[in-house]
Write a structure and sequence with these properties.
The protein has about 60 residues and is of the alpha+beta class. It has a 4-stranded antiparallel β-sheet with strand order 1-2-4-3, with no helix packed on it. A hairpin with a 4-residue loop joins strand 1 and strand 2. The longest helix is centred in the N-terminal third of the chain and has 16 residues. The chain starts with a helix and ends in an 11-residue tail after the last strand. Belongs to the beta-defensin family.
Length: about 60
């Protein structure tokens, strides 16, 4: 029983510790987040009001700097 409770606690902590969102944007190539991570750019907002963070390889060529 103790092993079960320990496993349950670890899984619960991991679910909180792993960042990310299931909400997608930019033709499923972007992720909706509160803040974009390194090298990502935001061009539009998601339906939830979060930023649509797009990785460099999916960014439009005319907007890359």
């Amino acid at each position: 029983m103790k092993r079960f409770l320990l496993t349950l606690a670890v899984l619960l902590l991991l679910s909180w510790a792993i960042p990310g969102s299931t909400e997608k944007c930019w033709n499923l190539r972007g992720s909706c987040r509160e803040k974009c991570i390194k090298n990502e750019k935001s061009y539009v907002f998601c339906m939830s009001g979060k930023l649509c963070c797009v990785k460099p390889k999916f960014q439009p060529k005319s907007l890359q700097t």
